[in-house]
Amino acid sequence: MTILITGAGLIATHSAVSLIDRGEDVVFYDVAPDQTYIDLVLEGRQYALVKGDILDLAHLLEVAKQHNARASSTPQPSCRARRRPNRHSPHGSMLRAR
Fold it and tell me: In sequence order, which residues have a C-beta less than 8 Å from that of residue 63 and are 6 or more positions away?
């Protein structure tokens, strides 16, 4: 199964380690990815990396389609408040292939 993770920082990369270790394929989608940091955390595990802005919905959806990923996450209670999209949101999301 392929998981598309928006963001490639501390939480995203450490979540990816757990996902990869349980057999998932991981694709990071980040506006300014630090590949050196990702490689350090993932310690040789395989992943894909796409540079993109979550505010560019057309590109995000195209990447999800290319990797056969679908939305499958449940927002945390703190994320349910109405607010404008923000590329710096501390609440990343994951897309899971069916």
Answer: 4, 27, 29, 50, 52, 69
pLDDT in tens, 40-90: 999 999 999 999 999 999 999 999 999 998 654 444 444 444 555 555 555
Contact by Cβ (8 Å): 38, 10? no
Q: Which residue has the higher pLDDT, 6 or 91?
A: 6
The token duo for 81 is 């408040």
Q: Which of 2, 44, 18, 40 is nearest to 29 (CA)?
A: 2
Name the DSSP letter for residue 33.
Answer: -
**Which of helix, strand or coil describes residue 95?**
strand
Angstrom distances, CA of residue 72 to CA of 42, 45, 64, 75, 77: 23, 23, 12, 10, 16
Structural Rg of the chain based on CA atoms: 13
Which of these, 82, 96, 89, 78, lies nearest to 11 by C-alpha position?
Answer: 89
